[in-house]
Specification:
A: 717 residues, mainly alpha, Serine Threonine Protein Phosphatase 5, Tetratricopeptide repeat, 6 domains, 33 helices, B: 361 residues
């Protein structure tokens, strides 16, 4: 009995030991989940190398208040304008590229083992052990390189197209490479049409390169290396045919691709679904006219079915791509719907690219408004996560947001769409920097136009500036929204944003902002008003700094100057103070000087405002400013100059208007000498305004001499 | 526009009254009124009349000028050319009739006939046709007169007015040009807005799955035909390229580096990348004496040396087992190549013997 008890216990202990031993030795756990002691460990879940990291990464949320992770987390190095974002990111990558270049150029420094005795140094060997492929120097192929077929395999595997072509030539060209390798090489050539693809390694370059839409023209290189290789292959395998047809169709050599497909079919060579997808993509190049093209598409689909090829997801998007490329109209739209229904019937759901083409087809800029987006969004909201299936998928979100903004003008739809993009790791589908900024341009625009004001502000706060820096057009939209919403403090902030985003020199924007400030100014709290005043004064200083910079640095493109109307607005804003000592009066003075020096374009649109400012300055006890303003008005020949000068003079001399008028109509010379210089200037201005034009050149000289006399004379105010 | 119309009317009146006179010959309604009056009254009266006439006429060159200016500013050169012929023809006729009329008037006034005629003509024709050679001698006094009159009539533009005019003009032309060029869109935009406004509530909802199937394909098991492995790989590559983004936190960076093979994969194992040696027991690395068996002397300097080599190799963490073996074998070959010398010295002979003995025993 006793032994009976003991033995099982020891037995379990032994088993335990064994298990721990195997764990230690081979890192393996028993797969059986049952153990005799009643404890059943869960079965081991096999994990990939990045699973834990992905789980951890998923716990890190988005922080819109921080710059992107790729930038240095240093206040001085956080980019706030689009230009800087691009420059900083690309500079960082340029550093990495420089390092890689040195590594490749001086590969011999990295291919020796220091612990090897000198006689035993093995040349192609890494200093690192284990060798890390990513860090080892990349081979450089030139005309003198000694190459083997392994090199060709390596270049094909890494899609180094130009290197592979060099290696292929060095190996002896068409004649001396074995068929299998030749086929692989042919596929590479056909896929890229003998053009070097983007590197996988340099993410920033791809992110910031403005990949314009592919040119829809026959760019296939006729008689190139691919053609030669195909000619030399004997027997021509189905793979070779497929590669050639797909390549030609991909680069819109439609006629030859279709001919070759017919040739292959007549020879009984089995083609593939991908071949048909490619052919469908370029079928529009064979026929002219919608009806004929649709016929051709149908017959090609029929042929595909006859050949026993099953369509797949890409077939659907290829069909829709062709349809959307043929323009718009009811017929094509009906056809597209039919195609979608057809594929749904055989269990193929449209992917993002298909949706994108549908949107292109239905939501034309000036066409009738169709709402197909709501169905699509409902469909997408059902999916847990979106997988990219083809590169065109990245066009979906930008187009859909554009439709929300321009076509449907529906903020709710835009918000739903944005929620989908933000779900999981769907953000990868945004494409590149260019597409991202267009996406946000649409989003912000539609929010500014159609969202409630509070919501818009919230959105702007989240996106700007770390996620998105608005372009001038969007900035204008934002200013408009803020103006309508009457957010004075926001408008004051907007000025600093303009400077930070690098739009400070855009005169049109600044003028728009000033206009908005003027319009919203009156209804604001005093605190906000002072902020607006400060912003307006700063605009003036900024313009000053810019023009100085231009003078010193000899900038090529001339900086546009603020218009006189804008400068007047600044004056109007800055002068809204009853404090004589307010520093803003300095800005007013400076602005007036600028106006008089003709450093502003045009003439003010509302001279009355200037007249008011002059009046106010005179009241407050700043005759100099008042005089400058009135003189400017007079020099410009505004009718307001006369009444303004009379009023200002009246205030200065503290006399009723009639008396001043009679005084002024008196002989001018009698006034000279008896007035304060400022009042003198006002009187001068009155004369200019009255007689029209700078007639009094010589008298001005005399008055200037009398100025010096009157300096000593007491102020009559 | 209104002023121009008025000018034009004036112009017509003048032209009519001037041109009618000669064409109708002597004595018709207008002439009978003006001429007798002139002749009957004294010379003072005549000069007054002339002044009036001149003033009337003066209105005309002003028209011309303003018209020209307007045309020049707004219309392109081609248009002006088109009208040029008409104008030329007209002016030619007018010129003739005016000359005649002026002559008649001057004669009627009497006195210095030539001078009055010249004055009249210079006033009138100076503006219409300055290049006329026949009248060039008559135009001497013209400039002074005109400048004076001009100043009187029209105060010079102030800078403000000038700028305003200049600023406002291009705006207008730009707008017209814009609307001309854009044509339909500019027109349709407000309409579009109007249309949009009601339409905002109800764009046509299209269910994308509402179409009729074409009926070409039947659902069956997939047959995708020939597969191209390199092509598929490249497609995958393009896809990752299209969706790749910079990592947004350190974990993502580590994921990226792991995928690029730059860092150790999880779970961390310090023998990663040494797969070559994975199935080799550590004892094979450490106990290397077995490789000396069969060729190395059991004792003596060579044995001693080789044992030291083995100890050294056993501590080398970098060589693979095969490399260690090769290293030992290299010494074997070396000693064998020096066999003669070694036997002479007495180091190898013994070894050979002992090894032979060992193998026997």
């Amino acid at each position: 009995m006793y032994s009976n008890v003991v033995v099982p216990r020891q037995w379990t202990r032994f088993a335990c030991l064994c298990r721990s031993l195997t764990t230690i030795e081979g890192q393996k756990l028993p797969q059986t989940s049952k153990s005799s002691d009643g404890i059943s460990p869960p079965p081991r879940i096999p994990r990939g190398p990045t699973d834990i990291l992905q789980a951890l990464a998923a716990t890190v949320g988005n922080d819109p208040t921080a710059a992107h992770y790729k930038y240095h987390d240093d206040p001085y190095l956080i980019p706030l304008s689009n230009f800087r974002k691009r420059a900083y990111a690309l500079s960082a990558e340029a550093g990495r590229k420089a390092a890689a270049w040195i590594r490749d150029e001086h590969a011999e420094l990295f291919t020796t083992r220091v612990f090897d005795p000198p006689t035993k140094i093995k040349t192609p060997y890494s200093n690192a052990d284990p060798k890390i492929e990513a860090f080892s120097p990349k081979p450089i192929y030139n005309d003198e390189s000694k190459v083997t077929e392994d090199d060709l395999k390596y270049t094909i595997k890494n899609a180094l197209l130009e290197d592979s072509m060099t290696v292929f030539k060095l190996l002896g060209g068409v004649g001396s490479v074995n068929e299998e390798l030749k086929l692989q090489f042919l596929q590479l050539l056909c896929f890229y049409n003998e053009k070097e693809p983007d590197s996988l390694e340099w993410l920033e370059e791809r992110w910031f390169s403005a990949n314009m839409r592919e040119r829809q023209a026959a760019t296939w290189r006729l008689g190139g290396l691919a053609d030669q290789i195909f000619e030399s292959m004997d027997p021509k395998t189905p793979e070779a045919y497929c590669a050639m047809i797909q390549g030609m169709a991909k680069y819109y050599q439609a006629e030859r691709a279709h001919n070759m497909a017919q040739e292959a079919i007549s020879k009984g060579i089995p083609l593939s679904t991908s071949v048909y997808n490619a052919l469908i993509g370029c079928i529009g190049f064979l026929k002219e006219g919608t009806a004929l093209r649709i016929e051709a598409l149908k017959s090609l689909l029929g042929q595909m079915n006859d050949q026993g090829m099953s369509p797949n997801n890409e077939t659907l998007s290829a069909c829709l791509r062709s349809l959307s490329a043929w323009g718009g109209g009811k017929v094509l739209q009906q056809m597209a719907l039919q195609v979608v229904a057809e594929f749904k019937q055989i269990g193929i759901q449209p992917g993002l690219a298909a949706y994108y083409y549908l949107l292109c087809l239905f939501c034309k800029e000036r066409g009738p408004r169709f709402d197909i987006l709501s169905t699509i969004i409902t469909e997408l909201e059902k999916q847990e996560s979106l997988d990219a299936k083809e590169p065109a998928d990245t066009n979906f979100f930008i187009t859909a947001m554009g439709v929300c903004s321009d076509h449907l003008q529906d903020i709710n739809m835009a918000e739903r769409l944005h929620a989908i993009l933000m779900k999981g790791d769907n953000y990868k589908l945004v494409g590149d920097a260019y597409k991202e900024s267009i996406y946000y341009r649409h989003y912000v625009t539609v929010a500014c136009r159609h969202a409630p004001f509070e919501k818009t502000l919230e959105l702007l706060d989240t996106l700007i500036p770390n996620v998105y820096v608005p372009e001038p057009t969007v900035m204008e939209e934002i200013i408009k929204t803020l103006e309508v919403g009457g957010a004075g403090d926001r408008l004051a902030q907007t000025w600093s944003q303009l400077v930070v985003f690098g739009h400070g020199k855009r005169v049109k924007l600044v003028e728009r902002l000033l206009e908005a400030m003027i319009n919203t100014y009156s209804g604001q709290e005093p605190e906000v008003q002072s902020k607006i005043r400060a912003a307006a004064a700063d605009m003036l200083n900024f313009g000053q700094a810019v023009s100085e910079e231009q003078e010193t640095k000899d900038v090529r493109t001339p900086v546009q100057k603020l218009s006189a109307t804008a400068v007047c607005s600044i004056i109007e804003l800055c002068s809204d103070t009853t404090d004589k000592a307010d520093p803003n009066w300095k800005s007013v003075d400076e602005a007036l000087r600028r106006l008089r020096r003709e450093e502003a374009a045009g003439v003010p649109a509302r001279p009355q405002a200037l007249a008011d400012v002059a009046q106010k300055a005179a009241t407050i006890g700043l005759p100099g400013i008042a005089a400058t303003a009135v003189t400017y008005l007079a020099e410009c020949g505004f009718e307001e100059a006369m009444s303004a000068s009379v009023q200002v003079l009246g205030t200065m001399l503290n006399r009723p208007v009639q008396e001043v008028e009679t005084l002024l109509t008196e002989q001018h010379s009698s006034l000279a000498g008896s007035l304060h210089p400022a009042a003198q200037a006002v009187a001068e201005a009155y004369n200019i305004a009255k007689t029209g034009g700078p007639v009094l050149q010589d008298r001005e000289r005399s008055s200037s001499s009398s100025d010096s006399d009157s300096e000593s004379s007491s102020d009559d105010e | 526009m209104l002023t121009r119309l008025r000018f034009r009317r004036d112009f017509r009146v003048i032209v009519r009254c001037l041109s009618d006179k000669p064409s109708d010959g002597d004595g018709k309604a207008p002439e009978s009124k003006s001429k007798p009056a002139v002749t009957q009254k004294s010379s003072e009266n005549a000069t007054e009349k002339i002044q009036e006439l001149l003033k009337l006429m003066l209105a005309e060159p002003k028209i011309k000028e303003s018209e020209y200016k307007d045309k020049f500013a707004t219309a392109p050169v081609i248009q002006r050319r088109k009208k040029g012929d008409e104008i030329e023809v007209k002016t030619e006729k007018i010129e003739e009739s005016i000359t005649k009329a002026a002559g008649e008037v001057a004669q009627a006034i009497g006195g210095n006939v030539k001078q009055t005629e010249a004055e009249l003509l210079s006033r009138v024709l100076g503006k219409i046709n300055q290049s006329s050679t026949t009248l060039s001698d008559l135009l001497v006094g013209m400039k002074v007169d005109r400048s004076k009159e001009g100043e009187d009539q029209k105060p010079p533009e102030t800078r403000g007015q000038q700028v305003k005019r200049l600023v406002s003009k291009p705006k207008v032309t730009q707008e017209t040009r814009y609307s001309q060029r854009k044509g339909k869109p500019a027109d349709s935009e407000p309409r579009g807005e109007k249309r949009k406004m009601p339409a905002v509530s109800q764009p046509t909802v299209v269910n994308i799955f509402s179409g009729q199937p074409l009926g070409i394909f039947k659902a069956k098991e997939g047959n995708y035909g020939t597969t191209l492995d390199v092509w598929e790989n490249l497609k995958q590559r393009e896809l990752t390229l299209a969706t790749s983004q910079q990592p947004t936190n350190y974990f993502q960076k580590m994921i990226l580096w792991t995928e690029q093979g730059k860092i150790w994969k999880f779970p961390i194992d310090n023998e990663q990348g040494l797969e070559e040696e994975q199935n080799v027991h550590f004892s094979e690395h450490i106990f290397l004496d077995s490789h000396l068996e069969g060729w190395c002397p059991k004792k003596g300097p060579i044995r001693h040396f080789m044992e030291l080599v083995c100890v050294g190799l056993s501590k080398n963490a970098f060589y693979t087992v095969q490399e260690k073996k090769d290293h030992i074998m290299w010494y074997k070959e070396y000693f064998e190549s020096k066999k003669d010398l070694l036997t002479e010295v007495g180091a190898w002979d013994q070894a050979a013997k002992t090894s032979a003995e060992a193998s026997q025993s």
